[in-house]
Amino acid sequence: MPSSEVIVSDTSPLLNLALVDRLGVLSEQFESIVVPDAVRTELLAGEDGADRLETLLESDFVSVQPAENGELVRELRSELDVGEAAAIALALERDADLVLIDERDGRTVARRHDLTITGVVGLLLRAARDGTVDIETALSELRDAGFWIDDALYRRAIESVAESASESESDTDKT
Questions:
Q1: What is the rounded CA–CA span in Å between residue 71 and residue 94?
Q2: pTM of the predicted model, to two decimals?
Q3: How far apart are CA 93 and CA 99, in angstroms?
Q4: Which residues of 30-60 are buried (b: 16+ CB within 10 A; e: fewer)?
Q5: N or C: which end of the chain has fewer CB within 10 A?
Q6: Paired strand residues for 118
Q7: CB 38 within 8 A of CB 65
Q8: Cα 138 from Cα 134, distance rounded (Å)
Q9: At CA 29, angle to CA 23 and CA 35, rounded to 5?
């Protein structure tokens, strides 16, 4: 069941989900997402996944909004690219429940501002635990698309889903 929380996304999670044709995991998990203008611009600037991303951005599921605090965006730009800076600023302005962001520097800055974060791997893990995605296949597709996933994270993600499935099965056996 989709969550009604305020979800703000940076470019990378959306782009990578589009590249592996898994944008549907977003609507399975959330009622809607918000992206800053800068992220919309970044998403439409590339060719990979462009049709899927354009369809997503034109849907009622996505709200495109400006980050109003230009001073904060400029400050964040000293460490981050424009999409990450705008996403974090917008998340702070909207008091977001969750920020979708992949890049290490962006995640570090988001945490410093006490934002709750997840990335494309986290979204796929949630989908796998719901039974809508095979995690090993999805992670392999991400790697094939050029998304770097550390071998240890790859194994932990697969093991985590397997453990969740085992726990669910043992809970079912008890009833």
A1: 16
A2: 0.90
A3: 12
A4: bebbbbbebbbebbeeeeebeebbeebbeee
A5: C
A6: 100
A7: no
A8: 6
A9: 60
